């Protein structure tokens, strides 16, 4: 699963529910997984 969502060749990516679950697991803020500036 992780290899698929991190691959630029696949259309599957993390969604906000995934990011929120990861934040709960790692006891951090969801924004820790997001960039500070928009991506191109």
Distance between the termini: 25 Å
Poorly predicted parts: none
Shape: flat
What count of structural domains? 1
What count of helical segments does DSSP give?
Answer: 2
What percent strand?
under 5%
Helix/strand-derived category reads mainly alpha
Element order: H for helix, E for strand: HH
Q: Nearest-angstrom radius of gyration?
A: 11 Å
Protein name: HTH cro/C1-type domain-containing protein
Fold and architecture overview:
The chain starts with a helix and ends in a 14-residue tail after the last helix. The chain is built from 2 helices and no strands. The protein has one domain (about 1-35). The chain has helices at about 1-5, 15-25.
Briefly summarize what is shown.
With 40 residues, the chain is mainly alpha-helical.
List keywords for this structure.
single chain, 40 residues, mainly alpha, 2 helices, 40% helix, flat
Write the layout of secondary structure elements.
Elements: H1 2-6, H2 16-26
């Amino acid at each position: 699963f992780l290899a698929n969502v991190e691959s630029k060749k696949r259309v599957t990516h993390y969604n906000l529910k995934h990011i929120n679950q990861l934040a709960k697991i790692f006891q951090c803020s969801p924004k820790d997984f997001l960039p500070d500036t928009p991506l191109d």
